[in-house]
Amino acid sequence: MPVEKRKIVFFDGVCHLCMGSVQFLLKHNNRESLSFSAIGSKTFLELIPESARISLPDSILYWKEGTLYLESDAILGITNELNFPWRLGVLFWVVPRTLRNLFYRFIAKHRYQWFGKAETCMVPTPELKQRFLD
């Protein structure tokens, strides 16, 4: 499948919360419909126009078959790919985006302070490597 038609979670490769989220997603996406790539990776740079990169958050982004989702929309879009009961997170679509994004931005702003920052990007195990894009 061409990379632009995939479902890709772009993540901050040095954020412990983001890397923990990727581990969670790997465990709870049994259909293996999600691929993963660090923000700033070759895949990211190929798919996201340079003009758009300037204004993007640097935490979690969700690319779904040609559309890029940001902030809480990204999280809820990703949730739809998870197994039950985690898939029920899609019910939060009823919460107004403004409120959802305030909560998202608050956590994103404090993520390094609360969860820490790694020196290097995580390296997937050989069995998970096929789910990660360069």
Protein topology:
Elements: E1 7-11, H1 16-28, E2 34-38, H2 42-47, H3 50-53, E3 60-64, E4 67-69, H4 71-79, H5 97-115
Parallel strand pairs: 1-2
Antiparallel strand pairs: 1-3, 3-4
Would you mind describing this structure in some detail?
The protein has a 4-stranded mixed beta sheet. It is globular and about 35 Å long. The longest helix has 19 residues. It has 5 helices and 4 strands; from the N terminus they run E-H-E-H-H-E-E-H-H. With 134 residues, it is α+β, with helices and mostly antiparallel strands. The mean pLDDT is 89. The two termini are 15 Å apart. Helices cover 38% and strands 13% of the residues.
**Largest sheet descriptor:** 4 strands, mixed
Spell out the helices and strands N to C: EHEHHEEHH
- In the predicted model, the low-confidence regions spanning at least 5 consecutive residues are none
> Number of helical segments?
5
Average pLDDT over all residues: 89
Q: What's the short version?
A:
The chain has 5 helices and 4 strands, in the order E-H-E-H-H-E-E-H-H.
